[in-house]
Amino acid sequence: MTTDPDTALVLRDEILAEARRQGEEIVSRAKQDAEASLAAAAAEADMVGRERLDQAHAEAARRSETILATVSVETGRLQAERIETLLESVHVEARHRLSAREGLEYREALITLASYAISRMTGEAFVLRISETDRSFLGEGLAGDIARRTGRQAEAIAVSYEPDFTGGGVVVENAEGRQMWDNRLEKRLDRMWPELRRRIAAKASFVPKTESGEDGP
Description:
By secondary structure, the protein is an alpha+beta fold. The protein folds into 2 domains: 94 residues; 100 residues, ATP synthase, E subunit, C-terminal (hypothetical protein PF0899 fold), CATH 3.30.2320. Helix content is 65%, strand content 11%. The termini are far apart.
């Protein structure tokens, strides 16, 4: 069997045309797939970028809150330290002034301190221990003045000026030596200081003011 040359050429051209058509379809689908892949990749990258941006914002907010909290705590600590330093300076100054009898009618103060202690102790007779260095400040008649203040006989009050007695004020003992009231100035300040400290802080608006009972003289 023989083939017409023209027929062979037509068949070849058709085969080549089909091959080109199929190739173009393959290339076209490849381009479409590539474009879809690129679009998907871009969308994913954009999503990842937004997530990372959100994470960065969240982390920045968290750090900001942490820093603000730290600043608040540190500010409170520094303020508390400053207040404590100021209050302690008041305490030291008060002790210094008491030690120097500064701004104090000392004889009257000592009579008040001794009378306050005696009025709260049991017994009929009492001994007042006072520093020898205070003798010149107090003068004569101290025992009688205290006795009259407490409604007792002068003989019930004995005054003992002692060289080794430290601090101003008085220590009161009953005659039997079973009771003792230390009303030296600095000792009394130390006992009263927690309440005085609170009142000073409240007066200076360091802390809120609250009701409080009064201490004795």
